[in-house]
UniProtKB/TrEMBL annotation, chains A, B:
NCBIfam families reported in the protein's UniProt record: HTH_metalloreg (NF033788)
The species this protein was found in: Actinocorallia aurantiaca
Classification via PANTHER family: SLL0088 PROTEIN, TRANSCRIPTIONAL REGULATORY PROTEIN
SUPFAM superfamilies named among the record's database cross-references: Winged helix' DNA-binding domain
PROSITE patterns reported in the protein's UniProt record: HTH_ARSR_2 (PS50987)
InterPro entries (alphabetical): ArsR-like_HTH, HTH_ArsR_DNA-bd_dom, WH-like_DNA-bd_sf, WH_DNA-bd_sf
Protein name: Metalloregulator ArsR/SmtB family transcription factor
Matching SMART domains: HTH_ARSR
HTH arsR-type domain residues: 1-94
Length: 112, 112
DNA sequence: CCAATGGTTAGCCCTTGCGCTAACCATTTC
DNA sequence: GAAATGGTTAGCGCAAGGGCTAACCATTGG
């Protein structure tokens, strides 16, 4: 559970940057090398690498180096944590809606 | 579109902090005053207020002050932007899966 | 009308985040 | 084996983020 929220936190932090979201988006189409990815962004390579590292350390992507090129792959499972969070959120407010409906239907049971 | 991504960015930034996510969660059960909300978190009120302001300026919540108490309400629509983003992400990689399947089924059409 | 309550403003501290350059490997390629 | 290519390391600058205290309204309750 502490595990869960630490991970969730990492995921949200990682996604809070537009560059990183764009990378995730791009990797949705399939794996790519750091260089190929970097070319699409207006920043120096070391700066871009930091984003890659952030994504990796938060589990959103996975990278492997073979020879001199590092290839990045999306990790869809991690992204699913966001789905889960949203689902829970929805669950919470649906419960609330239910209570409200109950109240309208049968106010006696809700006194006090 | 620029509007969209600016908003999306704000939403993710707002959700990148555990305190703020907890507030969103809490407000899912219904509106609450700043004071009531703050009581649940181990920080001074002014610090907490900043989070409230961040949530508000990014459109995730809506607040109204009546008398001396400010009441916060969740804005579910804004949260739906995350849903949309995830949906698009899914769309992208399903397209990819389709292409891969196509390739396996009928490699001739995919040469070069 | 005085005190308590609920927020707000101002300003400070410290850490983190994101960008940069310069220099440096380590593989390929010719 | 020298040059080009693809990443990596180190270190710096600056702005923003998240926390704090102190002091200050403004409403409300006795």
């Amino acid at each position: 559970m502490a595990q869960y929220s630490a991970r969730l936190d990492g995921v949200f932090v990682a996604l809070a940057d537009p560059t990183r979201r764009a990378v995730v988006r791009r990797l949705g189409r399939g794996p790519a090398s750091v260089g190929d990815l970097a070319r699409e962004f207006p920043m120096a390579l070391p700066s871009f690498m930091k984003h890659v590292r952030t994504l990796e350390s938060n589990g959103l992507i996975h990278t492997v180096k073979s020879g001199r090129v590092r290839t990045c792959t999306l990790n869809r499972e991690r992204l699913a944590l966001v789905d889960d969070w949203l689902a829970e959120q929805r669950r919470i407010w649906e419960e609330r809606t239910d209570r409200l409906e109950q109240f309208v239907t049968d106010p006696e049971e809700n006194r006090q």
